[in-house]
Amino acid sequence: MSPQSRPVSVMESLLEVLPIAEGNRDVFVDTNRPNPKLTGQSDRVFGGITLGQSLNAAQQTVSPQFVAHSMHCTFVSGRHATVAVEYHVERIKDGRQFCVRGVRAAQGGRTFFVALVNFTTQSLGSLHYGNSFPHDVPTPPSENDDDDSSANHKLPFLHHSVGIRLSSGDALARIHQWMRAREPISTQNSPNTHAHLAALACMSDSYLLAGAPHSHGIYDFASPPVSEVYDGRHRLSLPSETHRPIPRPHLNFPGSAPSNGRVTAMASLDHNLYFHDPARLRADQWLLSEIHSSWAGGGRALVHMKIWGRDGTLVASCTQEGLVSIEDLPEAKDSRL
After folding, report:
1. Beta-carbon neighbour count of residue 240 at 10 Å?
2. DSSP letters of 224-243?
3. Any residues with CB less than 8 A from the CB of 129 and at least 6 apart, and which?
4. Rounded CA gap, 118 and 274, in Å?
5. CB of 105 closer than 8 Å to CB of 87
6. Tell me, what CATH number does 244's domain have?
7. What residues contact 162, with CB distance under 8 A and at least 6 apart?
8. Disulfide engineering: 322 pairs with which of 108, 161, 180, 268, CB 3.0-4.6 Å?
């Protein structure tokens, strides 16, 4: 099948938004209701879906030469899985080199998410650098090794955990995982870069906030996040000489390592994403994420993520602050790094 005739992928379909009415260029509605089973909960929606849909709405209000370079988002409250979402876009600035859009996501008149999206024309500059690709990370599985038998087969993307990097000289634990859109992204979008940016925005919320408890030996979840929903052990962790596999005691696997506590509640508060090299981004090819947490206190935690392409290009950076509530387990043993 030629790229031009390739059907729209599950990722693109899930993140699609359309004008709510003819002639209204600034209000959009989601075309598909996300399956609540994506998170294993009855009425929870993976936050990355809202990130990708809001970016798609903003992208439809700028000229084709403008590409998103950052988005700054706040999760005001939860999103209901079965209720339509309206994305209201405000055209804050239209300049020659930069554009700014505000996006407000609402259900039944209730605002549950807001975002500020910045666009640029990608003019060339003389300063160019980026953090180096971590070369001690094993390569992702081949196409034939991908497993669709897990509970995550309804997700629009694949993710394969590498684990927590063991390094005595590194004060911060680093968590690595490979991820990509499950299906090839079509080339029918104009411009095509927009589809890959929206897909990356969706995937950027995968396994992010969990990096905070994991970096302190806390692996158990009362309600596992989307990246922790499995019904099998296949590819839970890729073999690595420099990483420790992430224990998952909530899955009740034999021999699961003890946890220093249990995460009883975890919710994103804000999400900041920077797109560094959109022209070289392919969200349907393997991307490596590196996650670490630099601070926690007052019931909140701050996490950071870098994302590279397989060619070593740093394509995006992300920070997120979220609520993390921990319950001590009397039987827990010290397994901190």
Report:
1. 18
2. --GGG--SS-TTSS---SSE
3. none
4. 10
5. yes
6. 2.40.160.210
7. 137, 138, 175, 176, 177, 178, 237, 238, 240, 243
8. 268
Q: Which residue has the tokens 């087969």?
A: 153
Domain count, the chain: 1
Whether residue 64 is preceded by a cis peptide bond, meaning omega within 30 degrees of 0, is no
- Rounded to 5 degrees, what are φ and ψ at 201? -60, -40
SS3 239: coil
pLDDT at 40 over 50: no
Dihedral of alpha carbons 42, 46, 49, 50, sign: positive
Report if residue 140 sits inside a domain. no
Contact 322, 294 (CB under 8 A): no
Alpha-helix runs per DSSP H in the chain: 10-15, 47-59, 193-203, 211-214
Query: Hunting for tokens 């407000």 — which residue is that?
Result: 104
Tell me how far apart the alpha carbons of residues 55 and 117 are, in angstroms, rounded to a whole number.
7
Three-state secondary-structure class, residue 108: coil
Q: Tell me if 117 is assigned to some domain.
A: yes
Q: pLDDT grade, residue 6 (50/70/90)? A: low
> Has residue 335 been placed in a domain?
no
Those residues whose C-beta lies under 8 Å from the C-beta of residue 241, and which sit 6 or more positions away, are: none
pLDDT at 233: 45
Residue 82 lies in a domain: yes
Residue 207 CA to residue 225 CA, distance in Å, equals 7
Phi, psi angle pair for 36, to nearest 5°: -60, -20
Nearest CA-CA partner of 92 in 60, 57, 118:
118
Distance CA 251, CA 270 (A): 28
One-letter-per-residue 3-state SS of 164-208: EECCCCCCCCEEEEEEEECCCCCCCCCCCHHHHHHHHHHHCCCCC
Least reliable range by pLDDT among 10-19, 238-247, 267-276: 238-247
CB 107 within 8 A of CB 85: yes
Residue 38's domain spans which residues?
3-122+149-328
What SS3 class is residue 328? strand
pTM summary value: 0.88
Average model confidence (pLDDT) across the chain? 83
